What does this fold into?
Amino acid sequence: MKLKLCRECKYSVESKGNFELRCANPYVNAKDSWALSQNSQYAHTHCRSERDGGIFTVCGMRGAKWEPKEAIGGGE
It folds into this structure.
């Protein structure tokens, strides 16, 4: 089984300046009042808090909403 790392997920966004990953998945952000109320492109759920939430979070430790980043270039 391959580990599902947030940094390899297509929904992860690096927060400007502090190297913190945030999740831009709309299902994850749907219940995050902070992410929904901010006026910033970086106002998403913290990846760490999503993973720390256990069974009570949308993606959680399993990475249930994880999707792979698409390959850049695609040259053979």
Remarks:
- The radius of gyration is 13 Å.
- Residues 21-66 form one domain.
- Strands lie at 12-14, 21-23, 45-46.
